[in-house]
Amino acid sequence: MTPADGTDGTSPAGVSTAPCDCAALFGFSLPWPVPAFTTSEAHVPDLDPAFRFVPAVTRAILMGFAHNRRVYVYGPHGAGKSSHIEQVAARLNWPCVRVNLDGHVTRADLIGRDMVVVRDEHPVTEFVPGILVWALEHPVALVFDEYDAGRPDVMFVIQRLLEANGKLTLLDQNRVITPHPGFRLFATANTAGQGDASGLYAGTQVLNQAQLDRWPVVCELGYLPAAEETAILQARVPELNAPTAAAMVRLAGLCRSAYRQGDLGHLFSLRTLIAWGENQVLLDALDDSFRLAFLNRCDESERPLVAEIYQRCLARELTL
């Protein structure tokens, strides 16, 4: 297949020319085709049949895959930001690699470095490419997690690539890398790049406005409606009966309301809900599994409020 630039909805090299069926895969139609790889490979994420897509966020992500747009997704922890990107990639058979931009990721980790390797039983020094260089040269969707926690020197390495056809210059190699037509770039974060005033996300920082301006697609993903969360919880933990799952989700919603009012210092995420359900299956003790999943991380002064919410939702006392 002749490679295409991927900026006008055409298919990159190695991708099926027939568009995927968005209505069947994601529950809605789009006015432009979305290409998909014909076969899967090792870097394609595992498909989660229980995953629930948020249409607005999914459309933004599909813009990234179909039109080579850079997509920045932000929102609270456990809302499914990275999972949304991975599950779209899984349904498109698109290889996807996640990189967590913690404080230990350096420029050399992304670009590469000279290393001693053994060739023909002799040690030689050669350039070993980093994950960014490797991804640029392959049909891969690269996802930068915790984007607002990256080191400034690392972030400026990424900045040039935020343009649709941005190329990467390796100064020590005298080489300019043109991205593979199937390369895509995404980022997830807990903030919109303006810093965190809540105190929940230590280590995040205010992002450079010139860099933020290079993300043409920015979308927010919050927690799902109660009915959607209940369906996900039951799909992930089928041993839970419907009334118990609904009560657990109702408790999570009330805890989130208490957080927004400043009465709780922790958000009750979907991830925590699933952990509570999984703990319950293992322990067969709803109270103890709740303590392990959420209550023990709360401040002692907050626990009476949490116990009150627990009693209201589950009609049983929680011993503190």
Automatic annotation (TrEMBL):
Q: Which SUPFAM superfamilies match?
A: P-loop containing nucleoside triphosphate hydrolases
Which keywords annotate this record? ATP-binding, Nucleotide-binding
Domain spans labelled ATPase dynein-related AAA: 72-196
InterPro entries, from UniProt? ATPase_dyneun-rel_AAA, P-loop_NTPase
Cellular component terms per the entry's GO annotation? preribosome, large subunit precursor
User: What's a Pfam family in this record?
Assistant: AAA_5
Output the GO biological process annotations, alphabetical, semicolon-separated.
ribosomal large subunit assembly
Entry's Gene Ontology molecular function annotations = ATP binding; ATP hydrolysis activity
The name of this protein is Aerobic cobaltochelatase subunit CobS
